[in-house]
């Protein structure tokens, strides 16, 4: 199934505006780490895809995802975005 940001997307204007503010601050030299968390099926992935498609062009975005069963792994999700060869 092909994913697209053209699919019906309603609401979340407040969240998109907040994320846009974070991006503006990051572009101004204040790096950001953003965690999008919530119950399954509430639209986290759609929100992120819409934001990245609309606002984050030209930005370096590092993303990772995890499963609930990985919760006890120390730095589990973070290590997905950082190659071990660079960690010292």
Write a structural description.
The relative contact order is 0.13. The protein starts with 12 loop residues before the first helix and ends in a 7-residue tail after the last helix. With 88 residues, the chain is an all-alpha fold. It contains three helices and no strands. The model has no long low-confidence stretch (mean pLDDT 76). The longest helix is centred in the N-terminal third of the chain and has 15 residues, at 13-27.
Q: Report the radius of gyration as a whole number of Å.
A: 15 Å
Instruction: Assign the structural class, choosing from mainly alpha, mainly beta, alpha/beta, alpha+beta, or little secondary structure.
Output: mainly alpha
- What coarse outline follows from CA principal-axis ratios? globular
Task: Extract low-pLDDT stretches.
Answer: none
Tally of strands: 0
Please render the helix and strand layout as text.
Layout: H1 13-27, H2 44-54, H3 76-81
Features:
88 residues, globular, mainly alpha, 3 helices
Characterize this entry briefly.
The protein is mainly α and 88 residues long. Helix content is 36%, strand content 0%.
